[in-house]
Amino acid sequence: MGLYKPQNISKFVYWTPRILSILFILFLAMFSLDIFGNGYTFWQTILGLFMHNIPVFILSAVLIISWKYEIIGGVAFILAGLLYDFMGLKGPFEWYKLSWILIISGPAFLIGILFMINWIKKNK
């Protein structure tokens, strides 16, 4: 019975978007590893890593701010998901694009919604 106490639900709602956003940021950072093994010089590799990780840096800053101000995380992660949707759908439409767009934007939307739920519960 202790599993359904309100404070447990609050802890779940509090920690879930934070943990998921850390995992999501690490997932995005993993894509930057494709820069290695392409024969680039040291400085080209550094520049490539920096360019690949710009979304990681932005979302990390958003997460730091969102740790205290959940509304920022809610809005920012939802906007990040929408931005990725629009960027992925430009050009000629192909059905396969939907699957890889949802792999990135889906977790962003989920995290944003969870931050919004946390913000709503916090302000009640």
Our count of domains comes out at 1
- How much helicity do the residues have? over 70%
How would you describe the shape? globular
Helical region count?
Answer: 5
The residue-averaged pLDDT reads: 90
Tell me what portion of residues adopts beta-strand conformation.
Answer: under 5%
How would you sum up this structure, described in words?
This protein is mainly alpha-helical. The protein has one domain (7-123). It has five helices and no strands. It has helices at residues 6-30, 42-52, 54-66, 70-89, 96-123. It is globular and about 55 Å long. The relative contact order is 0.14. The model has no long low-confidence stretch (mean pLDDT 90).
List keywords for this structure.
124 residues, mainly alpha, 5 helices, globular
Give the secondary structure arrangement, pairings included.
Blueprint: H1 6-30, H2 42-52, H3 54-66, H4 70-89, H5 96-123
Helix pairs in contact: 1-3, 1-5, 3-4, 4-5
Q: Concise description?
A:
The protein is mainly alpha-helical and 124 residues long. Helices cover 78% and strands 0% of the residues.
